[in-house]
Amino acid sequence: MREKRTRMKIALDAGQSFIGNPELCGDLLPRQCPSLPPKKSKGISNYQVLMFSGYFIIGLTIFLVIILLLCKRGKTKEERANLLNKEASFDDSFYKPSFTSGEYKAGLSKSGISAATESGMVSSSLIVLTSPEVNGLKFDDLLKAPAELLGRGKHGTVYKVIGEQGMTLAVKRIKDWTIPSNDFKQRMRRLDQVKHPNVLPPVAFYCSKQEKLLVYEYQENGSLFRLLQGTQMGQVFDWSSRLSVAATITNALAFMHQELREDGIAHGNLKSSNILLNKNMEPCVSEYGLMMVDNDDQSSLSNFGANSAFKADIYGIGVILLELLTGKVGQNNGLDLAEWVLSVVREEWTGEVFDKSLIREGAREEGLVYLLQIAVKCVNTSSPEARPSMNQLARVINTIKEEEERSIAVSIVSEP
Ligand SMILES: Nc1ncnc2c1ncn2[C@@H]1O[C@H](COP(=O)(O)OP(=O)(O)OP(=O)(O)O)[C@@H](O)[C@H]1O
């Protein structure tokens, strides 16, 4: 070998070409000597040793890289699992939902809750808030569970979902989200810290770029809206029960407004379909804090800045009070009902406003009129600054309720 190299050097130095020169090419540069028949080597040449070593090193490197990648992937999964446990959340990244239930197909999957991203995968995070009832709830549980459409509102669709552990949930799929995702997550965490027995807390929420879901416990006794519709078909909903509903929800909302004023979180979409009746038939305010503000009287609130959401809630509760008094349900955020009541009151036909069943029942006129007066103040669109605060409203309604109870007690005692 050394001898051949020396000969090659000599040949180069002498300006000779070694192409075609068998003496000079030998087995050093076989491909550069096309005219030569390949020389048969005896045993393994140095070149082959070098070549095999190269293959071996490349193979070993690829093997080590694969091992390294596999280790790294395992570690990431472990870290993620730890993080998720810590946060009690479920990350179903790369989970492709399988729709197993026929009912589900008729509900959630049809609605697109599959949350398919551009890549066809689901990148999601279901945050379970502090609720023992749904411990262990996973996003894929929701996707696979049978679901039934409860209704479609202005801001989305609500499904009744039966979870694997037998829990019944209401899942609201929100459309036209107005709150940035991060703000919304913050809101939900803040709301989870402020609890009132008559405010229905979300038990979990899901927030991705494509999909926003809110999970509540299903309330089997329907809503105040449905109860009022029932009265139009002759169902009994007496005056003291109506006053009790009014007092309970205003007390709950006064508490929420007080606790969340600094955070600027009002209800945002207050109406009778968002007042649900729990298993004890007690009213509960649902969907608190979901919407920034949703009210047709919003234009009249432009000067109220951060306070406008709270002012809008007063309008919303005003309409609910009018519904309780009239037995009619408001349309277009209660604007039609509020306008009708205001026009009747202006004409001084106040008596015409009240639900006939209340008059028949013998509800005290004083109480009815007091409640009407305060409700009218709540729906004042020409000077929203004159609307009472939720706290003032709660105090007035509690007083009316106490007066009613006292007068009922007096009439019972004075009965012969
Ligand atoms: N947790 C729940 N339990 C039982 N029924 C519910 C629950 N949440 C909502 N619903 C009912 O589902 C139906 C649809 O609700 P949704 O909130 O979509 O209607 P909406 O309040 O009229 O509209 P929106 O809130 O979008 O303006 C309503 O009848 C509502 O009372």
Automatic annotation (TrEMBL):
ATP binds at K172. Keywords: ATP-binding, Kinase, Membrane, Nucleotide-binding, Receptor, Transferase, Transmembrane, Transmembrane helix. InterPro entries: Kinase-like_dom_sf, PRK1-6/SRF4-like, Prot_kinase_dom, Protein_kinase_ATP_BS. This is Inactive receptor kinase isoform 2. Gene3D superfamilies: Phosphorylase Kinase, domain 1, Transferase(Phosphotransferase) domain 1. GO terms for molecular function: ATP binding; protein kinase activity. It comes from Actinidia chinensis var. chinensis. The chain crosses the membrane at residues 49-70. The keyword Disulfide bond does not apply. It comes from the Eukaryota. PANTHER family: (WILD MALAYSIAN BANANA) HYPOTHETICAL PROTEIN, LEUCINE-RICH REPEAT RECEPTOR-LIKE PROTEIN KINASE PXC1. It holds the Pfam family Pkinase. Residues 144-400 form the Protein kinase domain.
